[in-house]
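Reopening this one. Same input as before:
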Amino acid sequence: MEDPDYISGVTLLTYPARHMAFEHCSAAIVLLAPLADRFEDLNVAASHLLGYTRQELLTLPTARIFGHQLPDLMAFTQHAMEHGSAWSDRFTCQRGNGEDLPVEISATHLPFKGRPHLVLTLREHRGERGHQDKSRTEQTLRGGLIEWRDVLELFQENERGNQLLLSAVGDGIYSIDNQGMATFVNPAAARMFGWSVEEMIGKNVHRIHHHSHADGRPYPDEACPIYQAVQDGLVHEGRQEVFWRRDGTAFPVEFTSTPVLANDRIIGAVVVFRDITERRNTELQLQKALAELRTLKERLEEQNAYLQEEISTEHQYRDIVGRSAPILKIIHQIDVVGPTDANVLIHGESGTGKELIARAIHQASQRRDHPLIRVNCAAIPAELFESEFFGHLRGAFTGAVRDRIGRFELADGGTLFLDEIGEIPLELQSKLLRVLQEGQFERVGEERTRSVNVRIIAATNRDLRAEVVARRFREDLFFRLNVFPIHSPSLRERRSDIPLLAAHFIEHIGARLKLPGRRLSKGDIARLQGYDWPGNIRELQNIIERALITSRGKELNIDLPVSDTQVHQELVEPRKILTEAQLRELERDNLRAALEACGGKQFGKGGAAELLGIKPTTLASRLKKLGMIS
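Same output, byte for byte:
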């Protein structure tokens, strides 16, 4: 019986060691002649992976293995020949039993005998199936000496070709004897370790590259899974370990240690490993990206919560409507201050459209692509002020069940609109002033200081100068906000815009209510312009909407409330008793005023009868009765 360590007179330390590393390598290796569309050589692992015998695979065309993916294979091989190497995990092989097997393929270009060849390393795609069970592993490994001799004879026919084959494989491959000494090392392995092949042969490989864990703790020989394969005859794998280079640096690897048996005796092991530094870096980058995405997702969810009302409802008007002098002044101010980052303080009565001005300033700024976050300062309880503005950590106070981003952080890069700024309690104004001055804050319950870049637009219906004098508003905060003041005029100050605003609301609200084509008469417009509008634009909008709802035709029924001034006059002034003549003169004056307002037109659309709210026949009768017409 021949010595298993000495076959055909060649020791394992020389030629057969190379054959052993190739033949018993756990990775499936195939030598492909792409122009001939066939495999020229392969190892046992490739035969078992593909489910064919060696002889079958050497005679089958590659199209039989890759089937419908042949065009993809042609493109893949062309890329490998042009660039020297290629990798893909999108191929599926058809095994001998008809099963589809997803694989990842590494290819290396190997010119040989004047013809292009590719060395393919096939790996079953991770997650597609579990590890081989023990019985199948042992069946694969116990190929016996007869097959070994056949392979050896094949290799001996072309030593140079086999040397090139193993040298071209991109994965590191080495073999050890049953004492753990290196018997073969391919160039890729030596290159990754920083040693020469000659320096490694005959040495304890574990002590060269696997002597310590990643954290520097010693890694004894007996605990090394690579050497355990020599002891128990089982395949061992490493997923999260490191190998050490000659210069003392480490690199992450995944490896497989496969025992080699001859005559039921373990004579060594073949180790295949791969440097996964690039993969680990990609995974770390992916983890970082996922963390950033989670943070962004949280931020977007918070923005959605704060902006739910703006997202779910259409704005009542998208542009500032009007051509009066106060409106033209505001438009000019927006053009001036919009492109800057200056803080703006908008003051004016409630309902005058201060938020609309703030939106116009934001849209005119370089921050238009970032959010405009609106905060109603009057609606925030004093005890929740810090949490709402700056955010909090989970558990920072009772009810804080999760981390929350504050509104300053949500507006980072954009604009924060502080509506009703005068309602912030005096004791909390200093905390707001700090973030306005320094751009820094801390979440409630957190020591980390965060920075934000936010533009502030504030609005108030109070006289903040008077509030400063009364010591209800901090003077330094007032000056910080009042960099560029804008007055939002009341509707009484811009009566000439009332027809435009009314028409605007009729169009947009009518479209929403599906009541198109409604219109106002001149009499209605005159009444609207004569009203005091204590509720300003908001009140006008509500009256138009109510008129649209109650109208039964194209004409609107404008129902204006009695103003406080009229009520007060009726209460304090005694009623005056008029004579019959005085009543007739008063009626004549009223009819003359109606005719003048309508340009003398008595009947029809926009006529005096419509303005007075009486029938045309009634108007004619009264005019004739009072001698105003013949």
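So the earlier flakiness isn't reproducible anymore. For the record, The mean pLDDT is 81.
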